Amino acid sequence: LLHEFLYPLVQGYDSVALKADIELGGTDQKFNLLVGRDLQKSYGQSQQCILTVPLLEGLDGVNKMSKSFDNYIAIEDSPKEMFGKTMRISDQLMIRYYELLTNLSISELKHVRDVVEKGTENPRNLKVKLAKFLVERFHNKTAADEAEQEFNNVFANKGLPSDIPNFKVEAQEGVLVCKLMVDAGVAPSNSEARRLIQGRAVEIDGEKIEDANLKIDLKPGSEFVLKAGKKKFVRIQV
């Protein structure tokens, strides 16, 4: 395609316009950076040095971390989100994150690798340290400690998040749980709500819902917590 041909030339001309001495880029940009050197030579300029750095794989461990692939940890993520996303990565990928995102020494990185590959201790402990390091780096230590406590409460101790949103509804009888899930924003559609229920991923006050056609009565003054999947909670207030 034409744009695939033009892109390296246009990017390379940036080096000519800037009269760059050195250009930094990911390893996937090596060809484009070298084109910049060739163009500089053609324009009678000194050729820039190039410095490439490894690409950080995203949460899937396959593609590079990118918003386009929806496999990223955003620096503006809340402490809770940042901590939770880090805890989702595989043990093997954790080695890579330690190598590229921390300032551990070679011997400390070897310890991380030994933990994962030889099972010298529970890898989860190191993953928690990594998650706290990242949260502290982009937020602060207090936020990192609170994010760890929140994660343990919700996922390890099966507790409830501290910041469950409230959803107020009018009293009524015979309300489909599926419809309530969509109205409350924990499911995007009735079909997805049904799928979650059939997958035993929906709870009301800790009790699993298994009937996708279940109807409940919303009595005045009542209140309960609706959970969908592992991370979506809402407090229904009538």
Description:
This protein is an alpha/beta fold and 238 residues long. The protein has 3 domains: 2-53, no CATH class; 79-156, no CATH class; 166-237, Structural Genomics Hypothetical 15.5 Kd Protein In mrcA-pckA Intergenic Region, Chain A. Helix content is 47%, strand content 16%. The chain has helices at 2-18, 30-42, 79-88, 91-101, 106-118, 123-138, 141-156, 177-184, 190-198; strands at residues 22-26, 49-53, 166-168, 172-176, 202-204, 207-208, 215-218, 223-228, 232-237. α6 packs across α7 (141-156). The protein is elongated and about 80 Å long. The N and C termini lie far apart (58 Å). The model has no long low-confidence stretch (mean pLDDT 93).
